[in-house]
Amino acid sequence: MLFKIVKRSEISKEKSICIRILAVLLALITSGIFILLLDLNPLEVYWAMVQGAFGSKYRIEQTIIKAIPLIITSLGIAVAFKMKFWNIGGEGQIIMGAFAASFFALRFPDLPRPLLLSLMIIAAVVAGGLWALIPAFFKAQFDTNETIVTLMLNYIALKWITYLQYGPWRDPAAQGFPKIPNFSENAILPDLLGVHIGWVIALALVFIMYIFMNHSKLGFEIAVLGESENTARYAGVNIKKTILLALAISGGLCGLTGMIEVSAVCNTLSVEVTGGVGFTAIVTTWLGALSAPIILVVSFLFAALIQAGSFIQTAFGIPAAAAQILEGMILFFVLGSEFFVRYKLTKNGGFSLNLKKEVS
Amino acid sequence: MSQDTAYIVMKNITKTFGKVIANDNVNFSVQKGEIHSLLGENGAGKSTLMNMLSGIYIPDSGSIFIRGEEVKFYSPKDSINAGIGMIHQHFKLVDTLSALENIIIGQKTGFFINKKSLENKIKEIISAFGLEVDLHKKVYDMSVGEKQNLEILKVLYRGAKILILDEPTAVLTPQETRKLFAIMRKMKEQGCAVIFISHKLNEVMEISDKITVLRKGKTVKTLNKSETNPQELTELMVGHPVDLSIKRLERQSSEVVLKVRNLRAVNEEGVEVLKGINFDLHAGEILSVAGIAGSGQKELCETIAGLYPVTSGEILFKEEDLVGKTPKEIISKGISMSFVPEDRLGMGLVAAMDIVDNILLKQYQTQKGLLLSRKPATAKAKEIIKKLDIQTPSIYHPIRDLSGGNIQKVLLGRELDTNPEVLITAYPVRGLDINTCYKIYDLLNEEKKKGVAILFIAEDLDSLIGLSDRIMVLSNGEVMGILDARKATKEEIGLMMLGEKIKKTEGAYAV
Predict the structure, then answer these.
(1) Pick from A278, A279, A288, A280: which is nearest to A305 by CA?
(2) Is residue B444 part of a domain?
(3) Contact A32, A42 (CB under 8 A)
(4) Predicted confidence band of residue A194 (pLDDT cuts 50, 70, 90)
(5) Which domain range does residue B133 map to?
(6) Contact A217 B364 (CB under 8 A)
(7) Segments making up each domain of chain A, as ranges
(8) Are the C-beta atoms of B66 and B82 separated by less than 8 Å?
(9) B418, B442, B477 — which closes off a domain?
(10) Cα B145 to Cα B457: distance, rounded to the nearest angstrom
């Protein structure tokens, strides 16, 4: 081998930023080749992507709307991840939150707006939290594998909504079309400055979760438990209680995402309510290094990428799959650059060859 | 000693980390068939020097010669290829794999692995060096001594002719140490060069041929074992004459703080590990616990701290039974356990966190409200660093990057700082250099003066006799007897450790 991989002992801030910028540039060049194959001008497409994500008030609003669920879900997942509890069940927790919120929205459509919305929020947080408590309980009690349990619970949640949509909750007025009725006006979150009020909730949560993770007793206990269960026991942490509380918070935040999506974005419940946010948020959580402020930035950029992708589909008439390839490529390079931040390639030189002679 | 006959020569090696000069023009050479000890206090640069020899660090300047030819190591692989094998303090083994699998992983083999022939080859090495390894045992089932044997086997299998053992005896019992020395002598007979890093002067005097002393990153002197003595070595290490006797303070009071009565506990396999333990612990005394490793010391500590289930019996703290209480409740009563486990970071500290957060670990329970305040912990961190002379880039540096001795100081510093009424401390000086050892003995004496009841678990019988008021000897989960430390002899304790019960117990419990 000509090159070998060596772990970096330390890296300066400038250098790591340099590597990341280089990664984005490389991603753009590689994607450019792909765009050329589509018979389009890469520069035009890139400019259109910027325009698509930030080019007008409407587009910025769309980007923000896409960022909100990512931010809140990532914050939730980060709590579990900090404890090294691999909550892959964000998707299911969002769905169950959405379900509980929808239950109140459909059952009591005529309640006063503040009351109904509050009920929906509480129901969603509780439902998401309870859904996450299932794997937490089994983990705390029997040390089961949380990755598998949370993943499987996603499908149970999804099929539950499918059942509702095709069965008991089906809208009789939809002329046989399998959909759940739209919410009443009172069950829809109001707008503030052009975007539904979810953005205020998201920003507030970033702040609250930052304080929670870094300056609260429970946050500290979660971090200690994530590093070493023995030490946590020794310091007097109640292990089972901490696992359950952390997951209730994690799932509760995901559930809240579900409520915001059904109420403000979809105005009804459907099987597509999550749009894969529960999985995408795992990427943003990890890229955000489990830190609330960085999660905010990463989620916003990620939302911009998604928004830009859907914009160029219509602007250039390229297929959705092609736009997603661009998204994937950029993400691939950015994630790949993390490797180079941690490791470096060094030249092997002719040294090992000489050495073999010596030893033998 | 010319370069032709020397196996390894390290010449004018310098290595700096930021502003810290870890090695300053160090010269070091080892001959074939020689056991060469490297002595020095914590932070003298021993590990840095050895890490350069094993390819983990690259020297800033200076050269390394192996059999007279200059080599440059860019990674541990280069060093392994050159026949150097290092046994680290923290073992690098995969717990869930068997011994055999641990040896094979990372090796270049064909697509298929011929386990039979590999096994035979490995068995040859095992018998040649007198190692004790069961190739099909999983690592998680192994004792520390077995794991170390496996580590040695691993590097020998990779063709190492030069072995570096970084404080190998720090985690071993006297018996295991003796076995290790036998293995080291076999290596020497087979023409290997062995570099032995240790703080324990008696071990260094027992096993080595040559001794090199480092102080503050510089080579002080290389001596022949036959021409030196522990006193001289200590002075060379520390840089000034040292008094090697331990002070013993008189017991301060006769108030009984902790009473343990008929304490019984079973382990996960259902085997009884504590078989009816009885003792009293007075305020202002140091009660030592001696015993062969695994005689129930760990379980005794953990039961008192509420971390280990008790089957029957009582632990009375000022007449209040602690059995069944949670660790949190026990901590709040002023009982502190600074238990240094066999692998230092296993329990007590969080490796990824900085000193402040590790100190916070013992403070946050008593803070009011839901939020944390790091201010007191930060102040304490600064204080402890100064008081115990802890070497760290800053208090916000993850402690996993600190050396073993410094990590131990953080742990002990924190525990002493909680103003406990009962202090349980296990192996507090394990792996520490002489100067720090004495500092820690002084600290324990200071606590004793304040009236703290100290339960002191240790392995070094000399310091145990010197420091404590009474010595309780455990064997196989039973108390063999409690001796007055002023009258006890090592021989007597040794016999009791092996299971000989005595009738007379000095100032013991009154049942």
Answers:
(1) A280
(2) no
(3) yes
(4) confident
(5) 6-238
(6) yes
(7) 70-287
(8) yes
(9) B418
(10) 19
Structural domain contains residue B436:
no
Q: What is the mean pLDDT of chain B?
A: 82
With both helix axes pointing from N to C terminus, report the angle between A90-107 and A277-287 in degrees, rounded to the nearest 10: 130
Tokens 């931040």 appear where?
Answer: A341
Token pair recorded at residue A331: 């993400």
d(CA B4, CA B68): 5
Q: Quick one: average pLDDT of A123-150? A: 94
Q: Does A234 touch chain B (CB under 8 A)?
A: yes
Distance CA B508, CA B511 (A): 9
- Per-residue confidence (pLDDT) for residue A88, from 0 to 100: 93
Q: Which residues of A touch B345 (CB under 8 A)?
A: 228
The verdict on B167 and B48 lying in the same domain is yes
**Mean pLDDT, rounded, for A257-273:** 92
Q: Which residues in chain B have Cβ-Cβ distances shorter than 8 Å to A359?
A: 81-83, 159
Q: What angle do CA B368, B409, A222 make, to 5 degrees?
A: 40
- CA gap A301, A282 in Å, rounded: 15
Question: Does some domain include residue B245?
Answer: no
pLDDT in tens, B229-246: 888 888 888 777 766 666
pLDDT at A31 over 80: yes
Tokens matching residue A1: 């081998």
Residue B509 has pLDDT above 70, yes or no: no
Strand, coil or helix: what is B295?
coil
Q: Are residues B28 and B137 in the same domain?
A: yes
Report whether B316 contacts B256 (CB < 8 A).
no
Give me the CATH number covering residue B311.
3.40.50.300
Please state, for a pLDDT cut of 70, what percent of chain B lies above it: 91
Whether A235 and chain B come into contact, CB under 8 Å, resolves to: yes
Report whether B277 contacts B291 (CB < 8 A). no
How many domains, chain B?
3
Mutate to test the interface with B, among A83, A143, A218, A234 (most CBs of B within 10 A): A234
- SS3 of A144, please? coil
In a domain? residue B281: yes
CA distance A46 to A55: 12
Among B75-79, B380-384, B507-511, the range scoring the smallest mean pLDDT is B507-511
